[in-house]
Amino acid sequence: MTCPFLDYRDSAGDRAFDTARAYCTAVDRFVQPMRADVCNDRYDLDHASDCEIFLAHEDELDEAELEEAELDEDETGGEEPTEGSDA
User: Could you identify which of 22, 47, 81, 82 might form a hypothetical disulfide with 36, taking C-beta atoms 3.0 to 4.6 angstroms apart as the criterion?
Assistant: First the structure.
């Protein structure tokens, strides 16, 4: 599952990029590629436990975003189905 705060943007203000860059909506700034690896749960990393930005802003997620994240995890082979899911 990808961090719900992660977005990719191909511009900033009046500047356009050749390739979309990782942007953290929790802190409203672009992040380094290594940070995006955590956001994308690469290399056995998990944004929900390894990212201090996610942990600090997790309470800002609304219920719909949390449910969508849980469904994405179930569809992609998450560890266990969450309580109340049909999996």
Answer: 22
